[in-house]
């Protein structure tokens, strides 16, 4: 399973990259705003900065336009920034048409705001490279987000769609483990959820014991 980090924060992207497990980055307009990145030139430069940190991983950059011509114009501009840019397009009618257009032109896409299996099926038919089902936001409204990942997995496997399931809106480490069990191709998560996978109290206790025993035996040997 691929690990992406879901942030526009360069420090966090660097930190995840240094762990040696990072396969890519996803951003969205809210995450860019959170970092105070606004204005076309600054936004485009920020995407290039991200691509330069994660030199061999996909970076999803989201369009703002909602009309077909606007989505195509923005998407082509984003895609021209760096070979690793994947154009993130919302699951709306004009977005679907744009995904087909991009797919025919060899521009890679991530269809975002996926909340149903039907939407994921349409995105795959249109040639999306990734679909982003929002696990946490479904959980927030008492709907099982992980069940949606299972449904999409089944449908894509039934027909051999090579669209990758990119589980998004991940809130905690167990979401990541559960997505791996179900067979999501990619998980995009905040740094906190990724690093939380490292922790276990028995690891900490075991290490303290090993180091204490080593100290004792070293002192005895003096
Ligand atoms: O990038 C899309 C997605 O991961 C958003 O997550 O936490 O805002 O629901 P969240």
* SSE pattern, N- to C-terminal: EHEHHEHEHEHEHHEHEHH
Q: Using the CA coordinates, give the radius of gyration.
A: 20 Å
Structural class: alpha/beta
Count of discrete domains: 1
| Strand residues, percent | 15-25%
Determine the CATH topology.
TIM Barrel
Compute the separation of the termini in Å: 49 Å
Small molecules (ligands, ions, cofactors) in the structure? SN-glycerol-3-phosphate
Helix content: 40-55%
> How many helix segments?
11
Shape category = globular
Low-confidence stretches: none
Question: Which superfamily, in CATH terms, is the homologous superfamily?
Answer: Aldolase class I
CATH architecture: Alpha-Beta Barrel
Number of strands: 8
Give the averaged pLDDT, no decimals: 97
* Widest sheet, order of strands: 1-2-3-4-5-6-7-8
CATH class: Alpha Beta
Largest sheet features = 8 strands, parallel, barrel
Characterization of the model:
With 222 residues, the protein is of the alpha/beta class. It has a single domain (2-221), classed as Alpha-Beta Barrel (TIM Barrel). The protein contains 11 helices and 8 strands. The protein has helices at residues 10-18, 29-34, 40-53, 68-79, 93-104, 117-126, 135-140, 145-159, 173-182, 191-196, 201-220; strands at residues 2-6, 24-26, 58-62, 85-90, 109-114, 130-133, 164-167, 186-189. Strands 1-2-3-4-5-6-7-8 form an 8-stranded parallel β-barrel, surrounded by 7 helices. The structure holds SN-glycerol-3-phosphate (G3P). SN-glycerol-3-phosphate is lined by residues 6, 26, 28, 134, 136-137, 168-169, 188. SN-glycerol-3-phosphate (G3P) binds next to helix 7.
